[in-house]
Every structure is written in structure tokens, then in C-alpha cells.
Design goal:
The chain has 5 helices and 3 strands; from the N terminus they run αβββαααα. It has helices at residues 4-15, 63-76, 81-96, 103-106, 119-136; strands at residues 28-34, 39-48, 51-60. The protein has a 3-stranded antiparallel β-sheet, with helices on one face. Helix 1 (4-15) crosses helix 2 (63-76). The longest helix has 18 residues, at 119-136. It is globular. The mean pLDDT is 94. It binds zinc ion. Residues 34, 37, 39, 61-62, 64-65, 124 line the site of zinc ion.
Length: 139
């Protein structure tokens, strides 16, 4: 199902998640729960002039949800809100649609392309993105 190298990247981020911990002075924050798996992640953002200048997360969950959140924080740091919106769209397309998506834009996030067709895993991988969206919308 998932390529070996890609699996390693997921396990890597699961064991040593990037941007893990409380973010002091955050401007946005939201918590997400994926009940079907038991994943719980809180995403914190510091946004200045429509740019995500810093991001962090805390939480517990399966390897896919934790790695996905970790890789997401890497991917969105330093990006504008518009770029983040575009990334979210591409990520969602990759996992849920039969349309082409931009591998160049997604970069390491393509590691999750192998879980397409496994709805419960897709939920784990997309939860943090929905949480991010909630945080941006002030929920
Ligand atoms: Zn999960």
C-alpha cells in the first residue's frame, strides 16, 4: 500500500515530530478530534500580515495523524494564507479525488498518496488540515 521509503518518512515524523510543543504568542489555535481513530491534535499558529510566521502542534494519535500534522507544519511555515489554501486543496485532491494534483507543490506531502482509497486513514491524514482551517477561521 505505502512505498517503503515513504513509510519511513511517516515513521520518522511520528517518532520525532517537527514543530511539536506549545507556541508562545500564537494568534490562532484550534483542536481537532478524529473519533474513528482516537486522534487528537491541537494546532497553534502565529500569523503576521497574512503569513504563517510560526506554527506548532501538540496531541496524541496514530502514526499517520501525527506524521501528517508534523509534515503539514513544515509545509505551511513561512507561507501566505493563500498558498496554504492552495496546498490544502491539492492535498485534499490527492487523497479524495480522481483529478491530477501538483506533486511539485505538495513535495513531501505526497508521502500520503498511498492511503487514497482507505477512508479511515484519509481521515487521519486530513484531520490536522481541517483543524488548521478551523484555526484560520477562528473556530
Ligand atoms: Zn489515526
Amino acid at each position: 500500500m505505502i512505498d517503503t521509503i515513504y513509510q519511513e518518512l511517516i515513521l520518522d515524523h511520528w517518532r520525532k515530530p517537527h514543530n511539536y510543543g506549545e507556541l508562545e504568542g500564537h494568534t490562532h489555535k484550534s483542536a481537532g478530534i478524529n473519533r474513528s481513530c482516537g486522534d487528537e491534535m491541537t494546532v497553534m499558529l502565529k500569523i503576521e500580515n497574512d503569513i504563517i510566521v510560526d506554527v506548532s502542534f501538540i496531541g496524541t494519535g496514530c502514526a499517520v495523524s501525527k506524521a501528517s500534522t508534523s509534515l503539514m507544519t513544515d509545509a505551511i511555515k513561512g507561507k501566505t494564507l493563500k498558498e496554504v489554501e492552495e496546498l490544502f486543496k491539492e492535498f485534499h485532491t490527492m487523497l479524495t479525488a480522481d483529478e491530477p494534483y501538483s506533486e511539485g507543490l505538495l513535495g513531501k506531502l505526497t508521502v500520503f498518496s498511498g492511503i487514497k482509497g482507505y477512508p479511515s486513514r484519509v481521515k487521519c491524514a486530513t484531520m490536522s488540515w481541517h483543524t488548521l482551517k478551523d484555526a484560520l477561521n477562528g473556530k
